[in-house]
Amino acid sequence: MHSYASVDFFVDNAARVGYNVVRKYSGKPVRNLEEKSKGCLSANALKIIALIAMTLDHICRILLPQYELLIIIGRISFPIFAYMIAEGCRYTRNKRAYVLKIFAVALLCQTVIWVASRSLFQCVMVTFLLSVLLIYGVQNAEKRKTNASVALAGLMFCTVVFVGVILPEILDGFRVDYGIFGILLPAFVCVTNGKRRKLGAAALGVLGICLTIGRAVQWFSLLSLVLLALYNSKSGKPRLKNFFYIYYPLHIGVIYVISYLIK
Q: In whole angstroms, what is the distance from residue 255 CA to residue 176 CA?
């Protein structure tokens, strides 16, 4: 019981940090942010905002590196997508299909990246694949409460640490996008309940990313908490869940082709 109380205390304090950021930029009182009905942004709306920001970021990095403003705008995309991954893990009915879909997109993206640049850089879909596997490992251990399920969850956590922290130190050029805290951010959100706590968990993950990446521009990702505070916990219409998985590898491929043609 003591360990769970410590976790609750930690998350509550992280929530205060996240809400202080939200209150500063939005001017909304904290008590209103707890109410689902007060949110004005659906999951679809948040994903579209994140998708536009992400696209601008990638265009800047590959085609227009002189326009750093696009990178600043792009900083809000990852925390929003990570939060939505956590929501997907919480509510999806077919977990196996969800994992396979993310794996397929990750594999396709890594193929494009390898063909285009011969890089060992692991894209954000690999980050999310590791997140989902970790979340499902923890959920399985909580549900079954067997030695085997707990051991499997522990093995998954050790794999995440190895891939996110150790492997980049021993394999030149290997790096998982957003690092260890990028992998853990969806897990932080998924294991908490209530809008306030989930926003606090997201703030904890974003702060971890900012501190470990060590680039000043990354701190602009805290602005994503303002948008997440406006999330109304509704999926939104029309249903676009597969569109986002198709768009990601497609836009990466198109940008690389344009880059190749203009060189």
A: 20
